[in-house]
Amino acid sequence: MTDLAQDFDPEISEDFDSPHIEYARLRRECPVAHTNGLGGFWALTRYEDVKRAASDSSMFITSVQNVVPKVAYTGRRPPLHLDPPEHTPYRKALNPLLSVERSEMFADRARELTRHLLDPMVAKGGGDICVELSSYLPVHVFGEWMRIPEDWLDTLHDAGRAFILAVHSNTPETMKETSLRLYDMARALIALRHEQPQDPAIDPTSALLEARHEGQPLPDELLVGTVRQVLVVGMVAPMVMIGNICVHLSRDKALQQQLRADPSLIPAAIEEFLRLYTPYRGFARTAVCPVEMGGRTIPPDEAIALIYASANRDEEVFPEPDKFILDRPNIAQHLAFGRGPHNCPGVHLGRMQLRVALEEILAATTEFELNGPVTVSRWPEVGALSVPLRFS
Q1: What percentage of the chain carries pLDDT values higher than 70?
Q2: Looking at residue 233, what is its pLDDT?
Q3: Ramachandran quadrant class, 387 (left: phi over 0; alpha: psi -120 to 50; beta: rest)
Q4: Are 136 and 191 in contact, with CB atoms under 8 Å apart?
Q5: Does residue 86 sit in helix, strand or coil?
Q6: Which of 77, 270, 293, 370 lies most in the core, judged by the most C-beta atoms within 10 Å?
Q7: DSSP string for 263-306
């Protein structure tokens, strides 16, 4: 790692707002920043730099390091851990199962689950929206999508949450231990599909087993890694985003009432919330040769974090970037789901969950507000992990 001064500290204690204040400073003063924290890495904070690195997979690769802090202690997990064209067969197998139409097929089940999780919270006048609702909803929705046996879902929730918390606390041994539990689930699911084949047009694991690259099945080790990746990849962002949205609406009661009175505004509001509170800052690339960005030279083979949370508040692209603006004219430019060959394949499933959750939270309450301190995540996510609310 290059011996450079530290431009920022990724391990400093944070609150809900402080990361965005720091990233605004970096965009002004040091848009291509370097830190020795979390193993050392570069951080891109401006929109155009992040978009460039995310889009150019020939210059900026994921196969050396794909996340900060580095957490892949237990093998390669396609498609994220591979570069094109190696990653393409895995995406080709999964993408049809994540279309808008396919994702919306799970909306009724997501609504049923959300109401079930909300009922006890409403009865007691509130609760922690992340711990009691949004940590469960994506696990069950993803479980339905993955067609996981229902009696596995509690284990998946506990194992996935333990892994996420281990990443946030940056404890490598615990990361490895909890990741191995998820690998065990992946192997068990693949074994179950071998014993009880399902239609690859509706079952992701079967689609991966049926996939071929140059006429050959996908390698067993990488197939396990893919299922392991899929098991947890959709759990974190919806949990954090639902918490982030509830924090914002607790602070902006007028917007809360506006959306409650007119639910047709919710899809547009979701897009602005995604821009304003993008939960990702740790997805990483490495350059294959020295690259000039922001007046600095980034050497090859050094981790580069794509700070999507900062890019989506870049003043040069989004005027009044810290302000919620419904129907922002250029909202389609936001990078909340990434860009390029590694853009989020679960974009439609994620949007659906956020829409349904917000519709149901607003419908079940006449007003809600914060009822205690918000606990926030650490790298690689940014946002809320615990949001205690009081319901009216």
Answers
A1: 97
A2: 77
A3: beta
A4: no
A5: coil
A6: 77
A7: GGGHHHHHHHHHHHT--B--BEEEESS-EEETTEEEPTTSEEEE
Q: How large is the average pLDDT for residues 334-344?
A: 94
With a cut of 80, say whether residue 348 has pLDDT above it. yes
pLDDT tens, 277-308?
999 999 999 999 999 999 999 999 999 999 99
What is the per-residue pLDDT for 383? 95
5 in a structural domain:
no
Q: Supply the range of the domain harboring residue 160.
A: 18-391
- The model's pTM is 0.94
Number of domains comprising the chain = 1
CB contact set of 389 (below 8 Å; sequence gap of 6+): 121, 126, 127, 128, 129, 246, 250, 368, 369, 370, 371
| Residue closest to 382 by CA, chosen among 3, 12, 100 | 12
In a domain, residue 213? The reply is yes
* Cβ atoms of residues 275 and 312 within 8 Å: yes
Q: How far apart are CA 130 and CA 244, in angstroms?
A: 9
**Residue 372 to residues 124, 248, 388, Cα–Cα distance (Å):** 16, 14, 6
Q: Is residue 354's pLDDT more than 70? A: yes
**Which residue bears the tokens 């079940």?**
364
Q: Are 11 and 38 in contact (CB under 8 A)?
A: yes
Distances in whole angstroms, Cα of residue 326 to Cα of each of 132, 264, 268, 275, 380: 28, 12, 7, 11, 28
11 found inside a domain: no
What are the tokens at 335?
């990078």
CATH code for position 62: 1.10.630.10
Helix (H, G, I), strand (E, B) or coil at 40: coil
Could you tell me the maximum CA-CA distance found in the chain, to the nearest angstrom?
59
Check pLDDT > 70 for residue 389.
yes
Q: What is the pLDDT of residues 140-172, one digit of tens each?
A: 998 899 999 989 988 888 888 788 777 767 677
Q: Is residue 12 part of a domain?
A: no
Amino acid (one-letter) located at 9: D
Does residue 5 have a pLDDT over 80? Answer: no
CA–CA separation, 62 and 172 (whole Å) = 20
Going by C-beta distance under 8 Å and a sequence separation of 6 or more, which residues neighbour residue 381? Answer: 168, 236, 237, 240, 279, 280, 281, 282
Strand-pairing partners, residue 293, are 296
